[in-house]
Amino acid sequence: MVPSIIHIIFGVAGSGKTTIGKLLAKELNIPFYDADDFHPEANILKMSNSIPLEDIDRMPWLEKLAENITNWQKGKGAVLACSALKQKYRDILQSGSISKINWIFLDTDERIIQKRLETREGHFFRKELISTQFETLEKPKSGIFIDATQELEQVMSQIKSQLITKKSQLGLIGLGVMGKSLSKNIVSKGFGLSVYNRHVENQEVDVAKTFVEEFEENTNVIGFDDLSSFMNSLEQPRTIVIMVHAGKAIDEVIESILPLLAKGDCVIDGGNSHFKKTIEREQLLLKQGVGFLGVGISGGEEGALKGPSIMPGGTKEAYLRAGVFLEAIAAKDKKDKPCCAYIGPQGAGHFVKMIHNGIEYAEMQTLAEIYHLLRYHCNQDPIQISTIFDSWRRNKKDSFLLEITIDILRKKEGDVFLIDKVLDKAGQKGTGGWSTIAALELGVPLNTISEAVMARNLSGLKSRRVETSLLYNIEKTPVKEEINTFIDILEDAFLVTNIINHAIGFDVIAKASDEYKWDLRMSEIARIWTNGCIIRSNLMEEISELFIENNNTPLLLFPQIVKSLSRGVPALKKVISSAVIANCAMPVMSSAINYFLTHSSAQSSANIIQAQRDYFGAHTYQRVDREITEFFHTNWKTQ
Ligand code: 6PG
């Protein structure tokens, strides 16, 4: 067992030992003791009568304290306020100790103490004794010296920045929901952690301190609202995780820590930042010799706490430094490997996380569409739908999103399903839209994902939808098929849509890998998505295995996938046609079938597009009967 640390705050009476000791103990979340409380009655009586204590009086008291110190070391540790004026008293206190004591000396001035004691009431110590105290005091030769004539706030900040003899291995900035959960995860893995949260008057006050106080089970975390003390508390070279909102807030944090960073430090952005911003930030920090990792972290609050899926991008050197922490806190895959692996240089980690979210958007929308179809066109209530979904989970179609949707459907508020109380307007923070923009820039399709973004946008037009519904009066009619047969068909259609959606997502990742020369490993990306993240699923496990066979094969071209889709596509077509006839919108599922039909057509309709472009804009076209390098223009007018 490693003994816990005992901090002894010492100095003359009136130097602030008790106040400072209590504050420090609160900060460190360990007990506080006042040595005065251990004095035998006889000593207290002497002191109250202004009779100075002899060494003989002090001995039993110091020995008792020494004994307690040993016990506290076996527990959580402690802060002890004790005058300990002479070296020999300090030696006694140290004597039974099973590890080194942290000595914090409050250095002060006799006149200031006199003044303080004049205003102090209700304490047995008489101010006349103060000169004796200064006469007796033997200033220590080592330990932490604190100028106790300063304001309390400065004293505390000085102590905090100096006292931590064991510097923290990791620092974390930003104690929002994700930051807090990730901090708990980091500490639970045995890492010493310093956390910092900014101070914003009336809004973010003592956030770090309060967090540390609530953190009962561990003393391996220390909180700061003063940036330089936080930076000083970290082992060098430092590793700092930033967990603040993506966007301006990240730049503000980087700007504020930049002057305090040293060559060799490593900064990690664990938010959903745009990959292009990550590239810029990496450049900025590298100029100063500071490593930077843009790290996608998926799994929400629970994932961050119990083990998320982690997608780090940046230099290999930076990953060598910080990877050990990230891998330790990540979820584990089926083979007990961490769901964290170096993704690639620059913004690769954040790009991959962005596409993860794109896939997530489309998977969520697929489930929403199926629910809606079953509920309003197949006469199934939420419990019945949850039972159907449950059977799909058992049929190797399990996924985190399916699992949580079942919980959602079963949640009641009184007699009412809570889902019926939820307003049908979907929010979004941007990653789905960014995926769409990225696909447009890369010139690749993103059908299911972009359609899911548009479905959220369309859901946002609530009042317009209500108005239109009154004008068109479109009736929700029942699906004609026999319900059990239809549920089986729906199950196949669900799988097919998911496969197509994943194929689209992995294709855009492959394109980015080529375009930006990131050399991404598809199998590893899929593997770290098999646990911890929002899109973990049985399908993801299969995809990871497939990409081991060949990193460069598009998903839809693997023979195993060809087999599954050939079997399942008729089901998706059936579902879409039945749904449309019943007036049920299926934007993502129908985009999946349209994508598939186009993707698997040797002859597309685009010859007409090319001819039209050439007709009105002389944009030229290529011919199937000539070299691909040749371009033609025709006067298409026939009369
Ligand atoms: C995750 C999630 C997480 C978050 C997204 C989605 O992987 O843990 O994707 O990052 O839920 O920000 O947000 P929106 O749906 O609000 O865009």
Description:
With 639 residues, the protein is of the alpha/beta class. It folds into 4 domains: 6-164, P-loop containing nucleotide triphosphate hydrolases (Rossmann fold); 170-346, NAD(P)-binding Rossmann-like Domain (Rossmann fold), CATH 3.40.50; 356-599, N-(1-d-carboxylethyl)-l-norvaline Dehydrogenase, domain 2, CATH 1.10.1040.10; 603-639, Single alpha-helices involved in coiled-coils or other helix-helix interfaces (Up-down Bundle). It has helices spanning 17-28, 41-48, 55-74, 87-95, 110-119, 130-136, 152-163, 177-188, 207-214, 227-232, 248-257, 275-286, 300-306, 316-329, 348-377, 382-397, 400-410, 431-442, 447-459, 462-472, 483-516, 522-528, 538-549, 559-581, 587-599, 606-617; strands at residues 6-10, 32-34, 78-81, 102-107, 144-147, 170-173, 193-196, 221-224, 239-242, 266-269, 291-298, 309-314, 412-413, 416-417. The strands form 3 sheets. Strands 8-7-6-9-10-11-12 form a 7-stranded mixed β-sheet, with helices on both faces. The protein has a 5-stranded parallel β-sheet with strand order 2-3-1-4-5. The chain has a two-stranded antiparallel ribbon with strand order 13-14. Helix 15 packs antiparallel against helix 21 and helix 22 (522-528) runs antiparallel to helix 23 (538-549). The N and C termini lie far apart (96 Å). 43% of the residues are buried. The site of 6-phosphogluconic acid (6PG) has 13 residues, from helix 15 and helix 18.
